């Protein structure tokens, strides 16, 4: 084989918007890898589900991959990381996506799961303050206090002192959070647990937590929709959703004491030091974190997004040899040619070191004990 290779009102609108906004950027900007011809003439559907965090990128992949291989359709349902992990564990999908790596209990429930980082993104603290553009300065500690319900007004002195140039309103802060199991929530609450001992002891981290205050909405799409439609709200969404829907977002104080705008560059800065020490694909990724990374330019809420797939594909009841080959080919394409679509959708392409690690992981996938890479 040659080397190549939402829920609630407004969700559908956001999905369509994401795809429409992606259209001008669908031509890769870097040299593509020679494509491996499809090995089957029959129509094959690869079913996946999970994280909303990488949805705009995966959605673009599904369109572009089908253009290359018209008989291969990738069907991805954006249902949240928690839902993706459940479907992966129940073996009802061919692959899942999650922004949270599996913990030990989840690994035991879905043994021989591989983690394949597919992109890098960041979580932004988005808000709706009339006449206040992006750039409100916040610290992680202040964000935790807001989401704990301890800071209730936008003109609270702790916020005002960081932003003397902004006339903040004497209005109640309306917190918006995810209502579904979410990798974005895992990333956000993990960050708050690092920067706030009170958050860590009272709420903690997870794909779903007991929120002390606020309104719940399903998916990045749902949270973005509530914030955009409701003045004086604050919440958290993935950078791509904030940019595509023109939301205002905060500049956060990083570990080195600098207020940093979330961007591709500041997210990439958080990844650079970590890449050489990542675990293998079949090992535990539970302790892998890009959060609160050192570096003057590092944005503090950065994260990998993962594809979860079984190392032995025959455990899936609807998997056969031909489908296994096409799944492996798609995954290989995603970590190579697929990365060309990342920057214009506000995701950081995988560094070469991570691509090399992923190649080893994908080539280890088997079907009935034989390596799929060698079967094609």
Describe what this molecule looks like in 3D.
The structure is a single chain. The strands form three sheets. Strands 1, 2, 3, 4, 6, 7, 8, 9 and 12 form a nine-stranded mixed beta sheet that branches. Strands 5-10-11 form a three-stranded mixed beta sheet. The longest helix is centred in the last third of the chain and has 15 residues, at 321-335. Strand 1 (44-50), helix 2 and strand 2 (72-78) form a beta-alpha-beta unit. The model is unreliable at 1-35 (pLDDT under 50). Helices cover 34% and strands 19% of the residues. By secondary structure, it is α/β, with parallel strands linked by helices.
Structural class: alpha/beta
Uncertain runs: 1-35
CATH topology of the largest domain: D-Maltodextrin-Binding Protein, domain 2
Q: In CATH's first tier, which class of the largest domain applies?
A: Alpha Beta
The CATH architecture of the largest domain comes to 3-Layer(aba) Sandwich
How many strands appear in the DSSP assignment? 14
Largest sheet: 9 strands, mixed
Strand content: 15-25%
What would the average pLDDT be, to the nearest integer?
88
Q: Please name the fourth-level CATH homologous superfamily of the largest domain.
A: Periplasmic binding protein-like II
Apparent shape: elongated
Please report the number of helical segments. Answer: 14
Task: Determine Rg (CA atoms, Å).
Answer: 20 Å
| H/E series | HEHEHEHEEHHEHHEHEHEEEHEHHEEH
The number of domains? 2
For the terminal residues, how far apart are their CA atoms?
6 Å
The percentage helix is 25-40%
């Amino acid at each position: 084989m040659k080397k190549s290779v939402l829920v609630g009102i407004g969700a559908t609108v956001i999905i369509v918007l994401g795809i429409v906004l992606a259209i001008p950027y669908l031509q890769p900007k870097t040299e593509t890898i020679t494509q491996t011809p499809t090995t089957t003439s029959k129509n094959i559907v690869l079913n996946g589900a999970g994280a909303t965090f990488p949805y705009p990128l995966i959605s673009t992949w599904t369109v572009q991959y089908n253009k290359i291989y018209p008989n291969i359709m990738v069907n991805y349902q954006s249902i949240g990381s928690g839902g993706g992990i459940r479907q992966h564990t129940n073996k009802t999908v061919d692959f899942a996506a999650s922004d949270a790596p599996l913990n030990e209990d989840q690994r035991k429930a879905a043994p021989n799961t591989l983690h394949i980082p597919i992109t890098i993104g960041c979580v932004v603290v988005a808000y709706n303050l009339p006449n206040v553009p992006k750039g409100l300065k916040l610290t992680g500690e202040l964000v935790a206090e807001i989401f704990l319900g301890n800071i209730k007004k936008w003109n609270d002195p702790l916020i005002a002192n960081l932003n003397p140039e902004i006339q903040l309103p004497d209005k109640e802060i309306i917190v918006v959070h995810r209502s579904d199991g979410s990798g974005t929530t895992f990333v956000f609450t993990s960050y708050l647990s690092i920067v706030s001992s009170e958050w860590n002891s009272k709420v903690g981290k997870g794909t779903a937590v007991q929120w002390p205050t606020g309104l719940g909405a399903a998916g990045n799409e749902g949270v973005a929709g509530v914030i955009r439609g409701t003045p004086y709200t604050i919440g958290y969404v993935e950078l791509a959703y904030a940019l595509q829907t023109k939301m205002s977002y905060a500049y956060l104080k990083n570990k080195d004491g600098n207020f940093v705008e979330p961007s591709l560059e500041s997210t990439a800065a958080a990844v650079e030091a970590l890449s050489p020490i990542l675990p293998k694909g079949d090992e535990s990724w539970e302790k892998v974190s890009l959060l609160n990374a050192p570096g003057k330019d590092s944005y503090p809420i950065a994260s990998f997004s993962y594809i979860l797939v079984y190392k032995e594909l025959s455990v899936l009841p609807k998997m056969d040899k031909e489908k296994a080959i096409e799944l492996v080919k798609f995954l290989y394409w995603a970590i190579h040619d697929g990365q060309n679509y990342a920057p214009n959708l506000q995701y950081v392409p995988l560094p070469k070191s991570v691509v090399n690690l992923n190649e080893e992981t994908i080539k280890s996938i088997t079907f009935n004990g034989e390596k799929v890479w060698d079967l094609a």
